[in-house]
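ok here's Acetyl xylanesterase, carbohydrate esterase family 5 protein, seq below lol
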Amino acid sequence: MGYSQGAQVVGDSLCGSSGLYGSGGYSFPSGFNYPSSPYSFSGFKRSSMPSELAKESPAVKRAVEERQLPSDETKNIVAIIQMGDPTFVPGKSYDVGTSVTRGLFPRSNTACFDQFASRIQSYCDAGDEFCASGASLAVHLSYVTKYGSQATQFVVSKARA
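and the structure came out like this:
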């Protein structure tokens, strides 16, 4: 289960990052202080930080952006819950909620998620400032209260299947 940025991390872990260094809208703020360690939180070497990666060939960018977990590592995942995912794309079979607009950082390629469609529920309501590019933090913070029981039932039903 992932909530907000955690939902994005869940998606990125399963299917790689879509557009992290390009048209997806991701960017690091100017003056971003990289860690003193030679590795950042994402595991890239300092020499491979986004500004340098953006200059690399398209093949290198794809290898970083589209890295997804192999099916032998995902076969035992029974359920995936995402709530308030900033990479939300409306109109997918696994979407739950009222949003018909994209998140702040919509995925440009959702094909990988299609293989998990029967195991995913991605919750996003209209107005959410992160998953629906709206203006309401209250909507963004309401998912567990509003959909918690439904999400729990989904996970339990998948685990029992």
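fwiw Residues 20-49 have pLDDT under 50 and may be disordered. kinda neat tbh
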